[in-house]
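From the shared-data thread, chain only:
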Amino acid sequence: MWRTMGVHVERRQFEKWVREALDELPASFRPYLKGLEVRVEDYPQEELMEAWGLTPPDYPFGIYDGPSLPDVDDRDGFDGIIVLYRRPMEEWSRTEHELRDQIRRTVYHELGHRLGFPEEEMPDALRGGVGGRWASDALRNEASRFLRQARHDAAAARCLLNEGACDWALDAALSAAERGLRAALMAGGHDPDALTEDGIGELLGRLISDDRGWRDYRAFVRLDRVNTGMGAASLPTPAERVRRRVAAEAVDLADRLLESISREVDR
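Structure, as tokens:
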């Protein structure tokens, strides 16, 4: 479950740390700040969350809105906006040091998108900010945060299955699995920023590369292919298409997966 606010600072302090992050930007990237607006908001607007396919508490820390460097003709200053979401970063952080570090990481990460870098090719100077890659304590905290949300999803999946909402139960179990796999990878030292675009198949593949014991959970790849969308009007509804045995398999497998992951994250 989304935890209560860990850190709260005055807005002007938050904005001061944003300015300092920009001031600390490596010199080779500074020319691309021209034409860029950096804005601080508390939360994303509801219609944006819907457009991104996100629901609370899965708030982003920031976004970049605008063209990327490879797509513009005039590279000497082009418009764009980075929006930083203050409250989600405060909720995630346990200390002011973590909050300040996360501000820097988010600013640089979104700037990387302005420069046209995909997630997997983000330069280290932008992926982790001036401080380099994630510190071990911050990585452990992020793994724990994902595991807590995965447990919440798994509990919801079990309740939905008991109520007979098999399509919803399958969705919740898959969400628990995806968050749990991310937690396991972070606990194993993987950079969260490098996992952003990965789905269940890619995440599980990474884990199996590290330890072949995770092959026991390959059924999630098959379960993830079950279509729970509405589809054409002529098709049966998801509630009719998703059989109870499929949902039950996903829920039971999610519970077992999180048990295994808990040993990795909590040790």
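The longest strand covers residues 36-41.
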